[in-house]
Amino acid sequence: MNPLHLTFAVGFLSFTAMTASRVVLSLYALQLGADASAVGLLAAMFFIFPLLLSWPMGAMSDRVGPRKPLIASAVVSGLGLMLPYFWHHVAALYIAAAMSGLALSLYHVNLQTLVGRLSTPAQRVRNFSNFSLVGAATNFCGPLFGGLAVDHTSHAMACLFIASLSIFALILMFTKGRSLPRGQCSTAPRLHIMETLSDREMRSMLITSGIMQLGTDLFQFYMPIYGHNAGMSASAIGSVLAVFASAAFCVRFGMAGLVARFTEQRLLTYSFFIGALGFVLIPASNNVVLLSLVSFIFGLGMGCGQPLTTMLMFAKCAEGRTGETLGLRLTVNNTMRVAGPALFGVVASFTGLTAVFIINGVMMGVGGLMSRPKEKP
């Protein structure tokens, strides 16, 4: 197994565990009697550690290489997801979510950095597109796997099944991980927040990346609540989210051609506007068929968003600082992930889920306006 294929395999197992756990832990919380605000707080718990650690973890990745952080991430994720199997309490779900987030802070930036480092400039769009296909596949497999596991076993047993994915990732890293590149020593100056934020182009990229991430996450977190309130089964909810992932997979499959035709910046603008349309249509959809159609539309828009922001950010990286720069992007994204679910959980408790989806549709529209290509003078 060559290093790039190993990166994709570990990414598939890690991201599948994450996406499945987000669905299963949310449904588990509802089954234990948690309300929308409690589920929103649970959603935020997944991203507290990524918020605090993505930037330093990116810098560490530049120095020590990816193997040890990826091994640590598999251990932490597996242990965290085993906890709700033994302790049937909402507190266990919060701890499991936080540990999954700690694992995410370790593997996410390392995997993205690996794809960039293992690619020549000519291969970069193709390899990032393929990596995004892996992510789309996990968005399909994770919710579907989690929903089926809940319906055919139990919420607690589903957590144990998800933990086994991290064990497989751990085995791969122990047996094949020495083929991955080692750390780099860089002479480039360290990143400084204020200098970075003073760069108008970089600031715009960080903001649009954060909005894109927030929209994607809120759709995935609040769709299960919306479906639960509509009387849908766990398998049906998982299927709706799997349709979203299948649409993302389809559009990412042809993303290299789309980039060649429209450019990264213009394609990002289109992604935001399609995502806005998807959010606005959700409150008008009250059955599995309509929600699946809206989910497909939303997936077409969001499918390109994160890979495009990653490519645009990677192009700005200084030599030897790829992990640190991508870690900064993930820090901004995770700020939105922590604040967004908690804030919108309160909104949902007072005004209902419809307001959540409409507000996010407006935000996606603003992101589309911000990401428009600048006209050349």
CATH architecture: Up-down Bundle
Give the terminus-to-terminus CA distance.
49 Å
Order of helices and strands: HHHHHHHHHHHHHHH
Shape: globular
Q: What is the total number of structural domains? A: 1
Mind telling me the CATH class? Mainly Alpha
Count of alpha/pi helices: 15
Helix proportion range: over 70%
CATH superfamily: MFS general substrate transporter like domains
Strand content: under 5%
Q: Could you give the count of β-strands?
A: 0
Rg over alpha carbons: 19 Å
What's the mean pLDDT score?
81
Named CATH topology = Growth Hormone, Chain: A
Largest sheet: none
Task: Supply the helix-strand structural class.
Answer: mainly alpha
Runs in which pLDDT lies below 50 for 5 or more consecutive residues are none
Write a concise keyword list for the protein shown above.
377 residues, 0% strand
Q: How would you describe what is shown here?
A:
- The protein has 15 helices and no strands.
- The relative contact order is 0.16.
- The protein has one domain: Up-down Bundle (Growth Hormone, Chain: A), CATH 1.20.1250.20.
- It is mainly α.
- It has helices at residues 3-31, 36-45, 48-64, 67-86, 90-117, 124-152, 155-176, 193-198, 200-229, 234-253, 255-262, 264-281, 288-314, 322-351, 353-370.
- Helices cover 83% and strands 0% of the residues.
In short:
By secondary structure, the chain is mainly α. Helix content is 83%, strand content 0%. Helix 9 runs antiparallel to helix 15 and helix 14 runs antiparallel to helix 15.
